Fold:
Amino acid sequence: VGSAPSGAGKSSLCEGLLKNVLGLSYSVSTTTRKKRPGEEDGVHYDFVSEETFARMRAADAFAECAEVHGHWYGTKRAVIEEARTSGRDLVFDIDIQGARRLRASYPDGVFIFIYPPSMGILEERLRKRRTESPEDLARRLSNARLEMREAWAYDYIVINDVFDTALDRLRSIILAESLRTSRFVPPS
Ligand code: 5GP
Structure:
């Protein structure tokens, strides 16, 4: 489970992980946010209306959901249960509120905080992306400061300074975690 302030490069790192580590699948979240250019429905998110989201929430369809930067995001219970039944590892890209809730329900998860090299670099990355309005950008930057204080509640902190180095750090965490005695299944 990865969390990071907006612009820390978490989505690219998630993509890198999924390409480089066999057997990982992405947990596609549901959101009320508008699609950005290049995003695909069902791949990056399930994009739904506020009404549909509220209906799903009332039906207890989400293992966790939260309002982040003024939009709703949620992880479907069914996605987690299906992966657990089939023994697949999932990668979650969710905010700190969602990570806290998942930790309470699934304490065997591995929680990683992606830390930006500096606030200046974070701001520069967000500005270059040009996908947010000035108000949205300001809101994401002020949220970033609050989110970074939560990093200490995670199992690991990975600074995303150089992409390939950060990706290596993530791969090392996944490898070491997969070798934990508690996850050992004796060969038959
Ligand atoms: P973005 O709009 O930039 O794709 O994502 C904004 C924030 O929402 C990010 O911090 C991302 O991790 C978080 N997020 C995405 N999906 C979920 C989810 O299912 N649950 C929660 N709690 N946060 C999510």
